[in-house]
Amino acid sequence: MYPKKVATTAKEWIQLKSDNPIEVPTEPTAPAKRSNKGEEGRKAEFDSFLLKSFENDRLYFDKANNKALGVFRELLKQKKPFIDSKTTRENFFNIFKNKKISAKNRVVWLGTNKELQLFVKLLNYNLKLIVDLKNDIWVTTPKCFVKRNGQSFKEAQLKNASGKNTKRYKTLEDILSGLQ
């Protein structure tokens, strides 16, 4: 007579008790990797930017004399404004709160694609005013901004934007440094 088999693992126990043994995975399956091919299907970790000052002080935008209000006004009052004059203060501030922004509440960008690219690079890399977006920087930006004609920006349009350095670049840097 053969010795009775004793189950030492859950998998063996299930196989001994079942007429039709079940394949029980011994290791958890790894999550599927995101494809870097194209914009479709990519989901950024952020719904919008997250200003470090807001992350540290949730009342940052509620304070009467906050720096963000000055930046908002400066972007509007340029001879050739960077953002549309119909942009509300609330909609502008929402792009810095990692808040989901509806398509109709995105900020209308009046500058060039290169200027928007610079705006984001200044915030993220140079001035380090927002939580680092890493690889999702160009996926997150179109969630916050829309072209003057109402069309959405494409990731590649911003990532690969080209143009000459103009005085407006320095102006944009001066304006954004007001958030420091």
What does this structure look like?
The chain is mostly helical. It has one domain (52-179). It is built from 8 helices and 2 strands, in the order ααααβααβαα. A two-stranded parallel sheet has the order 1-2. The protein is globular, with a radius of gyration of 25 Å.
Brief write-up:
The chain has 180 residues and is mainly alpha-helical. It is built from 8 helices and 2 strands. It has one domain (52-179).
Shape: globular
Helical fraction equals 25-40%
Total number of domains: 1
Tell me the radius of gyration.
Answer: 25 Å
Compressed to H and E, one letter per element, the order equals HHHHEHHEHH
List the helices and strands and how they pair.
Blueprint: H1 10-17, H2 52-56, H3 67-77, H4 89-94, E1 107-109, H5 113-126, H6 137-144, E2 145-147, H7 155-159, H8 167-176
Parallel strand pairs: 1-2
Descriptors:
180 residues, two-stranded parallel sheet, 37% helix, globular
